[in-house]
Amino acid sequence: MGDNVRNPGSCASAVDPPQIRLQLMSNPLYLSGARELVSAVAKRLGFADEACGKIALAVDEALCNVIRHGYGRDPNRPIWVSIWPVHECGCGGPDVHPGALKIVIEDEARQVDPSVIRSRDLEEIRPGGLGVHIIRAVMDEVKYEKRDNVGMRLTMIKRRREEADNDQAEGDRKESEGG
Amino acid sequence: MGDNVRNPGSCASAVDPPQIRLQLMSNPLYLSGARELVSAVAKRLGFADEACGKIALAVDEALCNVIRHGYGRDPNRPIWVSIWPVHECGCGGPDVHPGALKIVIEDEARQVDPSVIRSRDLEEIRPGGLGVHIIRAVMDEVKYEKRDNVGMRLTMIKRRREEADNDQAEGDRKESEGG
Amino acid sequence: MADNSTRPGFATGGSDSAFRVTVNNTGSAVVVLPSGEIDLNASPVLRQELKRVQTARPERLIVDLSGVPYMDSSGVATLVEAMQIARKNSTRLVLCGMQDKVRSIFEIARLDTVFTIAPDSQAAMTV
Amino acid sequence: MADNSTRPGFATGGSDSAFRVTVNNTGSAVVVLPSGEIDLNASPVLRQELKRVQTARPERLIVDLSGVPYMDSSGVATLVEAMQIARKNSTRLVLCGMQDKVRSIFEIARLDTVFTIAPDSQAAMTV
Ligand SMILES: Nc1ncnc2c1ncn2[C@@H]1O[C@H](COP(=O)(O)OP(=O)(O)O)[C@@H](O)[C@H]1O
Ligand SMILES: Nc1ncnc2c1ncn2[C@@H]1O[C@H](COP(=O)(O)OP(=O)(O)O)[C@@H](O)[C@H]1O
After folding, report:
1. Helix (H, G, I), strand (E, B) or coil at B45
2. pTM above 0.90, yes or no
């Protein structure tokens, strides 16, 4: 569960450079900039406003977790956010509305086993433990992994729905979680 | 004129990595993302709304010029936007409101002599020739230069004015131009 | 009774779009009115203000979110913590004025039924 | 007389925040109503629409910018080009509904006195 990020096609393969790559320091000051960037790019690639807001929320939550858990709130460590449009079929370049957006967040923080990155039981009402739940509820595919030498990599995919982008029940559709 | 970018202090020296670095492909699709990023970062660093809008405009114009003149509209070449808060005195890190923002835009496009990058006489009413004028009108310091091996570098500095950020007459205060 | 203060967010003060928390003590209720996006940068400011007003153990605490266009889980966590303190103090905590995006995160967190949520501050006085 | 069409921007169609150009032919004037940010991505769409409506050499051409929160120099250049065509055709070109940010770029470009600018589309019909 959550580990099933399929190969997203040639134009978003690991070989192609991302269309957008943001490097930011691990300072909460810059979260709003990252959100606005991601949201504006998603909008231009044809995602509906509500979906753009949710993609930005997932990126925000992921960055918060790197800042807090990965870097222990050190505000001066690098984080990378890379964005690829994903075309189902014969590509077509970035101008054509892609079928999905792939967002990868990488850090140089301590490596943890992906299985420990899991949301807690929502029945227990207490602060915290919501970030991973939100990321999984909002995105279509979510995968945590260790990077080759140092740090973690989070790969998220959000598929685009045409016009009537009705994803208000998304939080409910995704019941199963955990790494 | 425009070439007097002074050393902006230790915390924004060339040695320090930027707080934010955006790599984007030279596709007009991504201009809005770059604008929103820059504007949101400036806002969090204490710039007034109007100043944030103008900084975003200058970055937009600079990116347009790289796309059109540097890369001849090839949408798949890299551009880098780097952002440093500039602290006048003994730094203090990014959390304290900086006295200025330094933004550097770099490309791998053809190198031109900085003196050819100049705005035309505004008296002549025709399309085009406005981008460089806008950049110089909106930012406090503007410097074009060739990068060491390939491509151009544009360094822009915008100083922050306290509270009553009254820069409505900025276009008028800057009469002199040209590289 | 006159606790009517505005505290600028430490991170964004100076800009006209700073995160701010306004506190209004009406006598029958304390109304906390954050304005701006509540993310990891701003939530410590809200948390501090909520803690401060909760030391007086008010009968009713209203958090009017009409000026909040965006909230992430750090904001939600701040409100959950405030609710736990409120329960201990027998304070009636009511959220109101939620914009769509903010309501959406409460739904995703399945906290929309845990909090008392009123449409506006008027309704929040009596609910 | 019934040229009432909406053309979605090629780059953003599909989203509810796409750049669009609506054209309204009232008989006495052609009103072009772009909506969305006019940057290098969107200005070709506006340019094409302006060229299209200008082939009919209307007496009055109103560009209502009330739905345009942002414009860069590529948008300004598009409007300068439309003005040049309008002069050749003896069309009266009027801009209206400028938001602050958009007005600001016309001021920086010193084009605020070159164009005829009306506060709203009502005024643009008679100015
Ligand atoms: N980037 C990360 N690096 C290391 N551990 C992480 C990361 N993201 C999440 N975790 C782990 O997953 C847990 C759940 O995260 P989350 O749902 O965001 O709740 P919270 O952060 O409030 O604990 C965290 O407590 C942490 O142990
Ligand atoms: N990044 C760049 N690379 C090469 N030449 C540039 C660049 N930016 C500007 N120029 C040159 O400066 C001139 C003025 O640019 P600008 O004021 O934006 O007007 P326009 O682009 O409409 O000609 C351009 O015509 C071009 O010759």
Report:
1. coil
2. no
